[in-house]
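Re: beginner question about structure tokens

> Can someone show what the tokenized structure looks like for a real chain? I only ever see the sequence side.

Sure, here's an example I had lying around. Input first:
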Amino acid sequence: MTPSTQTAPGPISQSELRELLRVYRAENWRGIQTPEVQAQLAEAMLQPDAESVLKQVTQFWEIPPQACVLDVGSGVGGFVVGCRQLGHRAFGVEPDRIGAGGWITSIQIASRRVQTNVFVAAVGERLPFADERFDLVTLNQVVEHVADAMEVLREGARVLRRGGAMYVACPNYLRFYEPHYKVVWLPLLPKAIGRTYLRLRGRNPIMLRDLRYTTNRRLRRWLEALGEGYRILDLHQEQFKRKCAGQGRFESRSARFVQKLISLPLVGPLVRKAVLWWFRLREGGCEMLVLRDGIAK
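And the corresponding structure tokens:
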């Protein structure tokens, strides 16, 4: 299948979009996040946002002009809209109905934000596109929600062109935090206990049922299973290595102290190894870039 660019009705106004987002968050996230958090997120979703992800990608892979981009799990469409504003040919995939559902879905909101039909109702396990169709595929906070993470990643790799890149980000559940409910959480907390804990805090545990606990190690294992022809970069580790090599600057005093330790003879390699191990174990989120038959900058 080739993504459609058929003309659609004109984009809605910011005031209309704000109201749709407010209703969508209230219906689909009731009991999961507090009304205050929902209001803040709805306001943040008003503005297209592609640059935060693209900035991470361009450190290690050069995005071609007018790149063909696929956002798997495109939500209310902010990333796709932002990419198109930057001149890229961006498309989004999102299930038509998720969770308990409400009278309006995320893909319906996304479709109202652009004048062309660039959003497709589908699941990541069965992408309705031909092989090697896209220069860049993004899965941002997606694999923890899907039924079969490995199949979603295989599908993302299938539609990725040779020389292209796939960006994958997800939570690291070895932290003491649950990012969807935004509450303190024990690492890999058994879900039976987690449901009781959420109810005691007055939260609806429905989302926990379909959440998959992701970690850096698990994500890397899934990506390595794609086979030969793919190079995997852990972006947090790669950025740390570059700063240690003098390409960039550490902002915190503690990080600069670690940088000095790494430069020392004998003890330096041990400190470096310990820090990279810490990233794999406890880093706040997993962020990896898969290069298909490509070489990093």
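Each token stands for a local structural state, so reading them left to right follows the chain. The chain has a mean pLDDT of 87.
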